[in-house]
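Deliverable D5.2: sample structural annotation.
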Amino acid sequence: MLTSSSKSIFRNLWAVPELALLILLFVCAQSAATVTPYSRQKNSDQLIQELKTAKSADWENALDPNVAPVTQEDFLDQMNKADRAIKELTHGFEVPQSEIEDALWSPPKSISPGLRITLIHQLEDAVRSDDRNEQAMLNDLAWSDSAAPADTVTFDQQRALAQSVIKDLEIGEGVHWSKIKEALEVPQSPY
């Protein structure tokens, strides 16, 4: 189920198809959580083959001389995730669906100008949602009987991360996809 902050992120998503796929895969992986092991849902041999194919594709993409160093690192990271899932499945361990989906995902080779703008807008939306959730927490605490101080550290750290990624994208710096995904997350009010 999408939260209101997730819905706002998806508003203009369809203008950039590769981002739409990227974000949808990420959200699906996040919403699936780690409740049902993926190995029970799919033939293990078929899944291992898919992971081997993803691992091989990530390796080939990492070797592409036209790929930026940051993106090469992302491909190698994804390759290692696929390798780890293969090893666990091969040895009979159950692997959560979220880990399988993450291992099968492959980042784009580059961020187009349109995708860069869309990501910046989504990150700005995430910062606004972060601010709203922080204010909601402070309002809830103001009306409660609690004498505990408000813990805004999580909100402050998330806002700083998102603003850092926005800055990197605006000036054309390479940004790891894991950092972009993390910056798009919005902490919820604990109250």
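Annotation notes: The first helix runs from residue 4 to 9. The chain is about 70% helix and 0% strand.
The annotation will be released with the project's public dataset once the embargo ends.
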